[in-house]
Automatic annotation (TrEMBL):
CDD domains: HTH_ARSR. GO terms for molecular function: cadmium ion sensor activity; DNA binding; DNA-binding transcription factor activity; lead ion binding. One of its GO terms (biological process) is response to cadmium ion. It comes from Cronobacter muytjensii. PANTHER family: TRANSCRIPTIONAL REGULATOR-RELATED (PTHR39168), TRANSCRIPTIONAL REGULATORY PROTEIN (PTHR39168:SF1). Signal peptide: none annotated. It holds the Pfam family HTH_5. This is ArsR family transcriptional regulator. InterPro entries: ArsR-like_HTH (IPR011991), HTH_ArsR_DNA-bd_dom (IPR001845), HTH_Metal-responsive_Reg (IPR052543), WH-like_DNA-bd_sf (IPR036388), WH_DNA-bd_sf (IPR036390). Residues 14-109 form the HTH arsR-type domain.
Length: 241
């Protein structure tokens, strides 16, 4: 049998549909108020409409329309719990898209990196994993010590052994990438993403080495965390709670 015949009309229609879909998503993200909401949701938690309206500095009634548009284009999801409704990012892919967009927006021709608040640059959440200068230094340490493959997309045998010794709760069958490099928008270097990155942040929070700042993406290093970072990753951090 011969190869199936191409249908230029169908291919053109599919390409046109994709272009329109991309345009719609871009338009949904084009409003400063919606961008403020999406950035707030980058802390990985679910927020109420009231909380998001406060972040965006708009009225609750106005926020409702913005949230509907983000929902309709698959950028966020709505969770119902009793009489309350919460909103969160639609998934890791959306978080990655936002992080990459932040990197593009922070190019020197648009906005100097020094304009980013010091605490936000030092340590913050990138949806469900650690980002910022601290995360970049941990990633560099892991590469140097052969915990990660040179490409950063896998833990080595040494890395798996070290993670197990630390008590990092790795998922044996993750539904996403087990490990991947994530470009840090403020540092312009990689930090650890994927399931391994999320598990590492979970451990840091459970051990009390990092503490979240309620309502913000920043995390602070505790006194215990400062000691642990020095002992485990040869990192000194002056920013403590």
């Amino acid at each position: 049998m011969g190869s199936p015949q191409r249908n230029p009309v169908t291919e053109e229609a599919q390409a046109s549909g994709l272009e329109q879909a991309m345009s719609n998503v871009a338009a949904a993200m084009s409003d400063p108020s919606r961008v403020a909401m999406l950035c707030a949701l980058m802390d990985g938690r679910a927020w109420t409409a009231t909380e998001l309206s406060a972040v965006a500095e708009i009225a609750a009634s106005t926020a409702s329309g913005h949230l509907s548009r983000l929902l309709n284009h698959g950028l966020i999801v709505c969770l119902s719990q009793g009489r309350h409704r919460y909103y969160r990012l639609a998934g890791h892919d959306i978080a990655g898209l936002l992080e990459n967009l932040m990197g593009v927006s922070m190019s020197p021709s648009r906005m100097p990196a020094t304009g980013t608040p010091r605490h936000l640059r030092h340590a913050r959440t990138c949806y469900d994993h650690l980002a910022g200068e601290l995360a970049v230094r941990i990633y560099a340490f892991m590469l140097e010590k052969n915990w990660l493959a040179p490409t950063g997309d896998a833990l080595t045998a040494e890395g798996r052994e070290r993670f197990a010794a630390l008590g990092v709760p790795l998922n044996p069958k993750p539904k996403r990438k087990a490990c991947c490099p994530c470009l840090d928008w403020s540092e312009r270097r990689y930090h650890l993403g994927g399931d391994a990155g999320a598990a590492l942040l979970t451990l840091f929070l459970q051990r009390g080495w990092l503490e979240r700042i309620p309502g913000y993406r920043e995390v602070t290093v505790t006194a215990a965390g400062r000691e642990a970072l020095q002992r485990l990753f040869s990192i000194e951090s002056a920013l403590t709670v």
